[in-house]
Amino acid sequence: MSRLRWGLLSTARINERFIDAVRRSDRSELVAVASRDVQRAKAYANRHDIYSSYGTYEELVKAPEVDAVYVSLPNHLHAEWAMRLSEAGKHVFCEKPLALTVANVDGMAQAAQQAGVVLQEASATRFHRQTSDIAEIISSGRLGRILFCHATFEFTLPAAADIRLNADMGGGALWDVGCYPVAFFQAVLRANPISAYARAVTGRTGVDLAFSGLLGYESGTAVQFTVSMATPMARQARIVGEQGSLELDQPWLTNTGAVATVRQQLMRSTAGAGTFGDDPDQLEEATWDYGLIDAYFDEVRGFEKLVLDGEQSPYPLSDSRMNVQVITALHESARTGREVLIDPSSITNE
Ligand SMILES: NC(=O)c1ccc[n+]([C@@H]2O[C@H](COP(=O)([O-])OP(=O)(O)OC[C@H]3O[C@@H](n4cnc5c(N)ncnc54)[C@H](OP(=O)(O)O)[C@@H]3O)[C@@H](O)[C@H]2O)c1
């Protein structure tokens, strides 16, 4: 196989970014779309110039012209349909969060393994070069021991009816955008947290509209993040070590066409200069950018390598599994008001 023939499972809004990315790649081709509604499927296929359209998801599962399926369903449907696709021999690129329980991640992983297909959680953030560069900088020791990190992903939900407001669909700010800092810090710190502490503000529909989390690591590092669907747009991340820090204005890399800039500050010498160690001249500053963000293209290229070249994923299902476990622990902490310990060897949410 030299080209991946893609199908879209649903007519979700996020497809727009994925379609653009697939169309820019010479190793991918978009051939089919499925919707719960046959008219919607046809109209969507016409609008986006897609050859096949199906009025049920089952038909896409069986479609012989499709090699790989992009699952852009609401969160609570990811597990069921990823498993059905795997069992039918389709490679699966599933939107974040991969699933809502660790047991579901395990079921999905098992189905993919038994069928010999690739199952990968989609992640524009992690497949972009900025994220792997940050991981390299941290592991090089340039910043010294990492003591703490901060991050935020906030926006205002534009519509009153949105899957994100539905608790039964895996709605809420933590599942929707909290998964970004959780996955990002796993990728750049190359470590998993051992504790979670959280506070949430819940809206009328019962989902968290704003969520603050504190993740603790064995090294003593603390990651503090805030996410929200009810405050003005804000995105930022800061990683602070004993010798320097990094500040990212586009840590999640979901803003296609924006410029992602990194600001690095390093101490010129190990001793802090100035009366109270507060002399600004002691810091050497460097700024660089990654040009216009095209991270959905990066994730498509990443998935192609897994299927067409047989490469191992840099972000395997064990990472997705851990992130589901961390999010579950954060929810439990917000619910109980207590810190929750995370044991990577146990299943805690079923
Ligand atoms: N990676 C990213 O940057 C990013 C950004 C946004 C969203 N996402 C993820 O992508 C997924 C979709 O998000 P979205 O905001 O694009 O979704 P959306 O626009 O609300 O669309 C969801 C689609 O799922 C289908 N669906 C099936 N059962 C449904 C139900 N009971 N209620 C509503 N829709 C149902 C519908 O398609 P049909 O009617 O055609 O069947 C609908 O168009 C989520 O998992 C989300 O976390 C990722």
Defining traits:
34% helix; Dihydrodipicolinate Reductase, domain 2; binds NADP nicotinamide-adenine-dinucleotide phosphate; nine-stranded mixed sheet; 350 residues; six-stranded parallel sheet; Rossmann fold; alpha/beta
Largest sheet entry: 9 strands, mixed
- Global outline: globular
Rounded to an integer in angstroms, the radius of gyration calculated over CA atoms is 21 Å
Q: List the strand order in the largest sheet.
A: 14-13-12-11-7-10-9-8-15
- The CATH topology label of the largest domain is Dihydrodipicolinate Reductase, domain 2
Q: What share of residues is helical? A: 25-40%
Write down the CATH class of the largest domain: Alpha Beta
Order of helices and strands: EHEHEHEHEHEHHEHEEEEEEEHHE
Distance between the termini: 39 Å
Q: Would you count the extended β strands for me?
A: 15
Oligomer: single chain
The CATH architecture term of the largest domain is: 2-Layer Sandwich
CATH superfamily membership of the largest domain: Dihydrodipicolinate Reductase, domain 2
Proportion in β-strands: 25-35%
From the helix content, strand content and strand pairing, which structural class follows?
A: alpha/beta
Mean pLDDT: 95
Number of helices: 10
Give the count of structural domains: 2
Residue stretches low in confidence (pLDDT < 50, at least 5 long) are: none
Bound molecules: NADP nicotinamide-adenine-dinucleotide phosphate
